[in-house]
Amino acid sequence: MSKHPLHDTRTWVFDLDNTLYAPHHALFDQIDVRMGEYIANLLNLDMVEAKRVQKDYFFTYGTTLNGLIHHHDIDPHTFLEYVHDIDLGAIPADDVLHKALELLPGDKLVYTNGSAEHARRVLAKLEITDHFMGIYDVAAADFVPKPERSAYEVMITQYELDASSCVMVEDMARNLEPAFELGMKTVWCPTESEWSGKGADSSYIDYVVDDLPDWLLGVALSCK
Predict the structure, then answer these.
(1) Could you tell me if 124 and 216 lie in one domain?
(2) Which of 6, 15, 67, 137 suits 168 as a labelling partner, its CA being 20 to 30 A distant?
C-alpha cells in the first residue's frame, strides 16, 4: 500500500471544539448558552437581543469575545472562565482517536479560540492529553482570534513550525484560509452549524473529512 500524501507531516494543528470531539455531543451548545447569558447580564438585555449581539460580534470580529473586547473593554479571562464553566460529561473517551494520534507521525498541537484550561479539560476527558506537545489558545495570541493571519504567524514563531510541513484541521472552513496561505495543508470537518461551511467552496480546502478519528487512523496506518 502506498503511503498517504500527508505521511511526511511534521506537525498536526487541531482545532478543539467540534473537531476533536463530535458535534453531536453538543458541548459547544453549552458554551453558546453561557455566552448569551454573559452578554445579557453585562448589557442588561433579554436573551433574544443578547443572542443577536453575540452572533453579530462573532461574524464581525471572528469571535464573540473579540467583539466584547472591542466594544465593551471586558476582562477576557473572566469571560472565558464563565463561558467554559460547563459539564463535560457528554463526551466519552475516544479510543479510535487515541489510537490514531498514537500512530500518526509528527507532533500534535491544539489551536483554539477558547482557553487553554478548557482545552486541557477536554483533552483529559477524551484521554488524549499525552499526544499533544502544546495548546495555543486565544490568550497566547494576545486575544487575536482565528481567522486573523497574525495569530497564525505568532503560533508558527512560538512553536518554531515549518508551515509547509504542517496540516491544520478545523470544523470552520474560513479558519483554514490563513493556514493555507501560509503553506499548510488543510482539513475541513464539516458540521451542521450555520458558520461551519462559510468559505468551504474555496480552493484553500485540501481535504473534507466527515469522521475525523477514522480518517486519521487510516492516514496513520498508511504512513507505516
Answers:
(1) yes
(2) 67
